[in-house]
Amino acid sequence: MNNLKFVVVDDAVFMRTLLKKIIEEVESYKVVAEGANGIEAIEKAQVYKPDIMTLDITMPDMDGITAVKEILKYSPDTKIIMVSAMGQQSMVIDAIKLGAKDFVVKPFEKSRVLQAISNVLAI
Questions:
Q1: Where are the domains of the chain?
Q2: How far is the C-alpha of 106 from the C-alpha of 84, rounded, in Å?
Q3: Which uninterrupted H or E stretch holds 84?
Q4: pTM greater than 0.85 (yes/no)
Q5: pLDDT range class, residue 82, cuts 50, 70, 90
Q6: H helix or E strand, kind and range, residue 47
Q7: Residue range 4-121, CATH number
C-alpha cells in the first residue's frame, strides 16, 4: 500500500509527537492530522477518512472507547489502534469489541507500534 494516511489522537502532546515520529519514519506513512480527545478524533475521521488512527483510551472530554463507534460510523474503513497505559486491559478489550483492530501499551516500543500497523494492514 502506498501513502497511508494516519491520524494520531492523544491528550499528551509528547505522546502524539513520539507516535508521529515513529510512523513517519516509514516513507509511505503520513500523519495528516492530530487530536487531543475523542471529540477531535471523530472530527478528524470525518474530514480525513484516515487509513489508520491511533487512539488513546484515557482522554478528557471524550475517551477513546466512546469515540470508537462514532469514528467507525463516519469512516468505516479506518483501522483503529488503541493506545493504552498499563493496567487498562479490560478497556482495550471493550474497544476491540467496538471495532478497534489492535493496541499498543505505553510506554511503547517503536517495533511494537510498527507491528500493530502491520497487523491492521493485514486485516
A1: 4-121
A2: 6
A3: strand 79-84
A4: yes
A5: very high
A6: helix 38-48
A7: 3.40.50.2300
